[in-house]
Specification:
The protein is mainly alpha-helical. The protein has helices at 2-24, 27-58, 63-67, 74-77, 79-82, 88-108, 114-128, 169-188, 201-208, 210-229, 234-249, 252-267, 272-292, 303-308, 317-326, 330-344, 349-354, 361-383, 402-407, 412-448; strands spanning 132-135, 138-141, 144-145, 150-152, 155-156.
Length: 449
C-alpha cells in the first residue's frame, strides 16, 4: 500500500504540483488573485442590500411590511448594490492594473508607478465600453431603445452601465494587461518624457505616463476599429471562449474536475483553493448576477463554501467534530479540540498541516471524494429546482447552513441542504478517519508500554 501511495504522490508532484506551481507564479495569475481578493468586500456588501430587496420572495409574510417600508426606498438603498456588484469589472480592472504594474516594477527593477498602471488600465477598459457600428461609411455610436434593450450613445444601460458589471471582468483584465504591457515596454525602452531629478515624484510620474497613454489610446482605437469593421467588438470576442469555459465549469462533470484539481494540489502541499478559485471568481460572480435575473445556476456566489468545502478544503467539518468528541487517539483528540472552532468558520489549516492531510495516504481518498460528493448533492438539488440558487455573496467564513441561507436570499431549504452536504461528506470521511484513529491509538498504546 505504501509503495502505491508513494507512486501516487510522485505522480501528483510531477504532473500536477510542478505545472500548477509554475502557473501560480505567473504575474498575470498573481494579479488576478489580488483583484479577486480585493473584490470580496464589495460583493458581500452589495449582496446584503440585494437580500433586503428579495427577502419577501422567500418569506411571503413579510410582503405587507416591505410594501410600506423597504419597497418605498428600494431605489435608494439598492444604489449600494449598483455601486458594488454593478461595477465589479471596474474594481477588477483597477486592482489588477495596480498589482500587475507593481509586480512588473519589482521583478524587472523598473521605475513604474502602480497608480499609473491602474489608471491606464481603466482608460483602456473604458474605451471599449461604448458600442459602435459603421453606418454609411461612418463610425456611429449605437442607439437602441426597446422593451428588451436600452443603449444610449453606445452605453448599454440596465440599472447601471451593463458592461461595467460582472460580464465585463474578463475584458477588463485583458485590457489591463494590454495597457500595463505597453506602459512597461515604454519605460523599459526609455520611450517617455524624462524630467529633472528636482521635479517632484508625482509630477515626474505623470509625464512618464504621457507617451504610454497616447500609445495605449491609439492601440485600443485600432483594435476597436478593426473589430468594428467586422461587425463585432472586444466584449463579443472575449465572450466566445469564456462562455465555453463558463458552461464547462458549471456542469457536473466540469465541477468534478475542478474539485479534483483543487484537492490534488492540497494533497501535495499547494494551496489549491486559492489557485483554482482565483480563475473561477469571475465566473461564479457572473453566474450569481444571472441568478439574480432569474437563472438557475448552482455554481455561483459562495456555492463552494456554502455547500462543498464545509469546514474548509476537503469538507472536513464533520470529521473534525468526530475526532473532537470520539477519537481514541490522544493525537487526534487534541487536534480536534484545537481545530473545531476554526473549522466552524471554514478554516482548516490546523487539520491540513496538523493531522496532517498533506502527503497522508490515510486521508487522501476522503479528502478527494468528500467534496466531490457534497458538490454533487448540492448541484443536483439546485439544478432540479429543489433549492433556490445562490443570488448573494455571504462572507466565506460564515458557518454551515447560515452561509447557504443568506446566499440563497433566505431559502430555508438551502440551510437544510448545507447540513445534508456536511453529513454526506462526513459519511465518506468516517471509515477512513476511524481506521487512521485506530492506527494512531495502537501506536500510542505500544509506545506507552
Amino acid at each position: 500500500m505504501d509503495s502505491e501511495n508513494n507512486k501516487m504522490f510522485q505522480f501528483l508532484e510531477r504532473y500536477l504540483m510542478g505545472p500548477m506551481g509554475k502557473i501560480s507564479q505567473f504575474r498575470i495569475v498573481r494579479g488576478v488573485m489580488a483583484a479577486g481578493m480585493a473584490s470580496i468586500p464589495f460583493t458581500i456588501v452589495g449582496s446584503m442590500f440585494l437580500i433586503i430587496s428579495v427577502l419577501p420572495q422567500s418569506f411571503p409574510a413579510l410582503e405587507g411590511i416591505w410594501s410600506v417600508s423597504f419597497d418605498r426606498i428600494e431605489s435608494l438603498y439598492m444604489l449600494a448594490n449598483t455601486a458594488t456588484m454593478g461595477i465589479l469589472a471596474l474594481y477588477f480592472c483597477i486592482v489588477f492594473g495596480y498589482e500587475y504594474t507593481k509586480i512588473q516594477a519589482q521583478e524587472e527593477k523598473l521605475n513604474l508607478s502602480p497608480v499609473n498602471g491602474a489608471l491606464l488600465s481603466m482608460m483602456a477598459y473604458f474605451m471599449c465600453l461604448p458600442q459602435l457600428v459603421f453606418e454609411d461609411g461612418m463610425a456611429t455610436l449605437v442607439n437602441v431603445i426597446s422593451d428588451d434593450q436600452k443603449i444610449i450613445d453606445g452605453w448599454e444601460m440596465a440599472g447601471g452601465v451593463t458592461r461595467l458589471g460582472t460580464t465585463g471582468i474578463f475584458t477588463a483584465i485583458i485590457m489591463a494587461i494590454l495597457a500595463v504591457k505597453i506602459y512597461t515596454f515604454c519605460v523599459k525602452k526609455n520611450i517617455y518624457i524624462k524630467m529633472p531629478e528636482s521635479v517632484p515624484t508625482g509630477v515626474s510620474n505623470s509625464f512618464t505616463a504621457l507617451i504610454p497613454t497616447a500609445l495605449i489610446a491609439l492601440s485600443v482605437i485600432v483594435i476597436t476599429g478593426v473589430l468594428m469593421a467586422f461587425g463585432t467588438d472586444i466584449f463579443k470576442i472575449v465572450a466566445i471562449p469564456f462562455s465555453f469555459v463558463t458552461k464547462l465549469s458549471s456542469s457536473w462533470v466540469g465541477l468534478l474536475v475542478v474539485y479534483f484539481f483543487m484537492h490534488a494540489l492540497w494533497i501535495v502541499g499547494i494551496h489549491g483553493a486559492t489557485i483554482v478559485t482565483s480563475f473561477l471568481t469571475p465566473i461564479v460572480l457572473s453566474n450569481m448576477v444571472q441568478n439574480q435575473g432569474g437563472a438557475n445556476i448552482a455554481f455561483a456566489g459562495e456555492f463552494n463554501n456554502s455547500f462543498v468545502t464545509i469546514g474548509g478544503s476537503g469538507a472536513t467539518l464533520g470529521m473534525v467534530i468526530f475526532i473532537t468528541f470520539f477519537a481514541k487517539s490522544a493525537q487526534l483528540s487534541a487536534l480536534g479540540k484545537a481545530a473545531i472552532v476554526p473549522s466552524i468558520f471554514n478554516i482548516n489549516e490546523p487539520i491540513l498541516f496538523g493531522m496532517p492531510v498533506v502527503y497522508n495516504p490515510y486521508t487522501a481518498i476522503p479528502f478527494f471524494l468528500a467534496p466531490m460528493a457534497s458538490m454533487s448533492v448540492a448541484y443536483f438539488a439546485i439544478n432540479l429546482g429543489m433549492v433556490k440558487p445562490p443570488i448573494a455573496q455571504p462572507a466565506w467564513p460564515t458557518p454551515v447552513g447560515l452561509s447557504a441561507f443568506i446566499g440563497s436570499g433566505g431559502d430555508w431549504k438551502a440551510f437544510v441542504l448545507a447540513i445534508v452536504c456536511a453529513l454526506v461528506a462526513f459519511l465518506i470521511w468516517w471509515p477512513f478517519i476511524k481506521m487512521y484513529d485506530k492506527k494512531l491509538y495502537t501506536n500510542e498504546q505500544a509506545a506507552a508500554k
